[in-house]
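Notes from hallway chat w/ T.B., transcribed later so I don't forget. T.B. wanted the structure written out for a chain they're using in a teaching module, and asked if we could keep both sequence and structure tokens in one place. Agreed to drop them here.
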Amino acid sequence: MSTNIKLIALALPYKLGTVNCYLVTTDTGHLLIDTGSSNQRARFEEALHSAGCQPGDLKLIILTHGDFDHTGNAAYLHEKWRAPLAMHTADAGMLERGDMFWNRKKGNAMLRKIAPALFGFGQAQRDKPDLILADGDDLSAYGWDAQVLHLPGHSAGSIGVLTAAGELFCGDLLDNTKRPALNSIMDDVPAAQASVERLKSCGVKIVYPGHGQPFAWEQFSEPQS
């Protein structure tokens, strides 16, 4: 199976940086990992069109977790592009309720109240997944030689996708905003550390993070000076 990976980096509101979405094109069609935030919808659709992906072409949208910057366009693409949504059951309520603190242990009380207004995570962005993904699920039925990994830590239902070639799409477990590192925002640090330990024996070669540029696994695993 041959694949092409296109990184689509979308600006976050309030100059909070960027978030990555990945369009994966296989021999049989397109899959999308994450959807960005709703403030960049026109830019996002333009990027999909320019990559040769049109409404009706998306075989599956995989949401690595339920935060607004990864699910902001999910409901829109689900309806307008007729694209099925897939995510882990532990984060599904975040998408369904429009509440990225729904299953989190931590979180500033004020931020919990103002997040929907600040980030546009309102009724229009709420939806239900068509497919619940679990650890070990095989994606070959979608023309992709890859499997789902449950990687809790950033959120309880965070997942990644690992290809047979060692390409890891890790959501917000790891990022590369300054250098390859564990994401600084963790709901469950011990769970995140356990997820990283698990990855050490998974044959990861290249990491495609939710924020920042892709990097070689060795750049993260080597001790930092």
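Follow-up for T.B.: The chain has a mean pLDDT of 92. Might be a good example for the class.
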